[in-house]
Write a structure and sequence with these properties.
This protein is mainly alpha-helical. It contains two helices and no strands. About 95% of the residues lie in helices and about 0% in strands.
């Protein structure tokens, strides 16, 4: 606990925490974007399949 307080109090610790938050948000944004892209691709392929069926 003492180490955590020292880390939060120092400027280097604050910078490290900021980088950790950024590093956590980038993959989260990528996951959300890929899920949305996946849904769009499913719709495109469904439309193509429907158009090609007799």
């Amino acid at each position: 606990m003492h180490t955590l307080r020292r880390l939060l109090a120092s400027r280097t610790g604050a910078t490290a925490i900021e980088y950790a938050l950024i590093a956590a948000l980038i993959p989260l944004a990528a996951i959300i974007a890929f899920q949305m892209l996946g849904l769009s691709l499913v719709n495109v392929f469904t439309d193509i399949t429907t158009a090609m069926s007799p």
